[in-house]
Amino acid sequence: MNIEDLHNYCLQKRGVSESFPFDEDTLVFKVMNRMFTLTSLSNWEKGEATINLKCEPGKARSLRERYTAITPGYHMNKKHWNTVHIDGTLSDDFLKEMIDDSYQLIVKSLPKKAQKELESL
């Protein structure tokens, strides 16, 4: 996966927007204004690409134990976020699956009104 693939994959999801709320380097993808994926553009340029993804706590621990490319979320709540190193050891399909999981966790946490609004988009 490259940055363009990540960008296109995230933006094709319902209700997703992109922004740079922290600085000019940190690209954030949000669903209904709630963050589900973020990445550092400069890390991609340096060949050290990572993405931070929300994850159910038990699953987050399990993934970290199983894959060396998945570590506790850098600058995030380590219980709920993983940093995924895009180093070629994880398939694009698996990366997309983790992005989907992150997106769905946020969607499920939205108030019912926002979930209905999202469904109508």
UniProtKB/TrEMBL annotation:
Source organism, top-level taxon: Bacteria
Molecular function per GO: DNA binding
Keywords for the protein's UniProt record, in alphabetical order: DNA-binding
InterPro entries: YjbR (IPR007351), YjbR-like_sf (IPR038056), YjbR/MT2646/Rv2570-like (IPR058532)
Annotated protein name in UniProt: Putative DNA-binding protein (MmcQ/YjbR family)
Taxonomic source organism: Balneicella halophila
